[in-house]
Design goal:
The complex is a heterodimer.
Chain A lengths: L1 E8 L2 E8 L10 E6 L12 H11 L4 E4 L9 E4 L2 H9 L4 H15 L3 E7 L1 H12 L4 E7 L14 H5 L2 H8 L11 H6 L14 H13 L3 E6 L3 H13 L8 E6 L11 H19 L14
Parallel strand pairs in A: 3-4, 3-6, 6-7, 7-8, 8-9
Antiparallel strand pairs in A: 1-2, 2-4
Chain B lengths: L2 E4 L6 E7 L2 E8 L7 E6 L4 H5 L1 H13 L2 E6 L16 H16 L6 E6 L1 H10 L6 E5 L5 H19 L8 H9 L4 E3 L2 E3 L1 H8 L13 E6 L14 E3 L19 H21 L1
Parallel strand pairs in B: 4-5, 4-6, 6-7, 7-10, 10-11
Antiparallel strand pairs in B: 2-3, 3-5, 8-9
Helix pairs in contact in B: 3-4, 5-7
Classes of the chains: A alpha/beta, B alpha/beta.
């Protein structure tokens, strides 16, 4: 069962869809909010957000999908170029509307806290939001989290490269064109340098948010396309700043044989299975209880 | 850095409409004053719908600001509409379009216009036969549904080769064999069924005959062909940037002002003709 809503909050008018928990399931006190992947509408690539929300609602969660300003059916501003949109999103452009939306949903439905998530850009927004507002966010689902700035670097001359810190970092962390020349043995020394050796194009704001959530033991599920660029980068960043030790609040699911948007190799189903399992565990561990009967909303 | 306001001229309304077993999601884009016409937009299919969504909404808002009331919707099994994509096929989506058009015609005295893009254009052409709409604007319709599915399949294979996710099947022929054998195939995240593949073979672009005196035009967007066309031969050519806005356009806001101007001018002429006709 799904219903539509419009949130008028501050200067934002946000359109969204509410997936009401199945009446046969126990209703959890934790809600789920998913935001747009890139510039797509709130349903996501091949409706990944719709399917995630449907499954979570069937498991007893209030699941919401919200169009951020300018995207989908929500009015707002947009840049012309996709690259510019991603640059803004990495800078936290969507943080304020995402926070306003969740605060409003909390007020309307009496839900204590939320799992926030999405794919790619919205995974980053969810991470920033969780770091900024720990009372609101119970956990983060980050699909294809992009911990680097994707914009192109200005090519350097060989002389410039010798004196460029960024070029040295790229070389040593395996992201330079000549990284293959770095001896294998040197790679094992890299973790010793910690965050000092994060690749030059690392999104440090996002990495700091990730570290902060880890420090607070906020549950984070990271679902990545196995062996692809974002996963390799994520692994590298985790080794550098979080250490190699597994932590119960930090989950990483690697989906093999799929692409960045999980539209091939059955990647979507695997990702959704992982999200549902993780969300149920989180709800059980946080002793989630059903909101009072009056708060059980219908669209 | 330039930001462009994506604002409707009037607050928009979203809702659901019952169509068969599914509820269809629709968005109404009202015009500031009394509308000169109502336009039903039939959009593309699968991943093309998602990648073109911003442009589609911009088109609806552009028309609304020029005095047309617009309605766009999601076919069942797509976007916000209910239904499972795998269980649906062209006849279901055609029926969704008929439901929306019938609803749009209810209680409206002005002309009803149809605009279809890609897959939606194929369905709009068939809906036009019901004579509920006075004019029809088709953007880049495929010759038939099978041709369109084949194009999407080619795109999927190219993407899989590029991503290194081709797997064992590895060729278009293998996918076609699987579909024909009745096994669903995952294409761009959607599970295509045997029924969809078979129905597509019977679904060609069905244009009105020469005796039909209503307004309609097929607009090719590849830039090839004569650029000076008249409504009499029902074809026009507008060039848009490639990759197209329903593909992997690197722009969030596609450069489509020529296409929008051309489309709006056509719809204005259609409304004028409807008024003259009385």
């Amino acid at each position: 069962m799904r219903g539509l809503f419009t949130l008028e909050t501050g200067s934002f008018r946000l359109v969204g869809t509410h997936h009401v928990p199945s009446w046969s399931a126990r209703t959890w006190g934790v809600g789920v909010v998913l935001f747009n992947a890139g510039h797509l509408p709130r349903d996501g690539h091949a409706m990944i957000n719709v399917r995630a929300a449907e499954r979570l609602a069937a498991s007893g969660f209030h699941a919401f999908r919200v169009d951020l300003p300018g995207l989908g059916d929500s009015p707002g501003e947009l840049p012309v170029h996709t690259e510019e949109l991603f640059r803004l999103v990495h800078q936290g452009w969507h943080l304020a509307p995402a926070q306003a939306a969740i605060r409003e949903l909390q007020r309307l439905h009496g839900i204590r806290s939320f799992v926030v998530g999405g794919l790619c850009g919205s995974a980053g927004t969810a991470l920033l939001l969780a770091a900024a507002d720990p009372t609101l966010v119970a956990g983060v689902v980050a699909m294809e989290l992009e911990l680097f700035h994707a914009f192109r670097d200005v090519p350097l001359s060989p002389r410039e490269a010798v004196f460029s810190r960024a070029a040295w970092l790229r070389l040593l962390t395996g992201h330079g064109r000549r990284s293959w020349r770095v001896p294998r043995a040197a790679e094992s020394l890299l973790p010793l340098f910690g965050s000092a050796l994060l690749p030059a194009h690392t999104d440090r704001k996002l990495v700091h948010a990730l570290v902060e959530l880890d420090r607070r033991r906020t549950p984070v599920l990271v679902v990545m396309a196995g062996g692809k660029r974002r996963e390799i980068f994520y692994d590298q960043v985790c080794r550098a700043v979080l250490g190699a030790t597994a932590r119960p609040w930090r989950a990483h699911v690697s989906v093999a044989g799929t692409n960045h948007i999980f539209t091939t190799g059955g990647g979507q189903r695997i990702a959704l299975d992982a999200i549902e399992r993780w969300a149920l565990r989180l709800a059980e561990e946080s002793h989630g209880t059903a909101p009072a009967a009056g708060h059980r909303s219908r669209p | 850095m330039g930001l462009h306001r994506m604002a409707p001229p009037c607050p928009e309304q979203q809702g659901f409409l019952d169509s068969g077993a599914s509820r269809i999601y629709w968005v109404r884009h009202p015009s500031p004053g009394p509308p000169k016409a109502r336009v039903v937009l039939a959009g593309p299919f699968g991943l093309e719908r998602e990648t073109s969504y911003i442009t589609w909404v911009r088109w609806a808002r552009t028309l609304a600001s020029r005095g047309f009331e617009c309605i766009h919707f999601d076919f069942a099994g797509h976007g916000e509409s209910e239904g499972s994509f795998e269980d649906l096929s062209l006849s279901d989506w055609s029926s969704d379009l008929s439901t929306v058009v019938a609803r749009a015609a209810q209680g409206f005295d002005g002309p009803l216009l149809l605009c279809g893009l890609r897959f939606g254009a194929l369905l709009a052409a068939r809906e036009f036969r019901n004579r509920r709409a006075w004019a029809m604007l088709l953007w880049d319709p495929p010759a038939d549904a099978r041709a369109m599915l084949s194009e999407v399949l080619r795109r999927k294979l190219a993407s899989d080769v590029f991503e290194g996710t081709l797997g064992e099947r590895g060729s278009r022929e293998t996918y076609v064999l699987e579909l024909e054998a009745g096994r669903p195939v995952e294409v761009e995240g959607f599970r295509w069924s045997h029924r969809l593949w078979c129905d597509a073979a019977r679904w060609s672009l069905d244009l009105p005959g020469p005796s039909d005196d209503r307004f309609w035009v097929v607009v090719r967007l590849d830039g090839h062909g004569r650029r000076t066309c008249t409504e009499r031969d029902h074809t026009a050519v507008v060039s848009i940037a490639r990759p197209a806005f329903w593909g992997h356009d690197p722009l969030v806001l596609a450069q489509v002002s020529e296409l929008f101007d051309h489309g709006a001018a056509f719809l204005e002429r259609a409304v004028e003709a409807w008024r003259r006709r009385g």
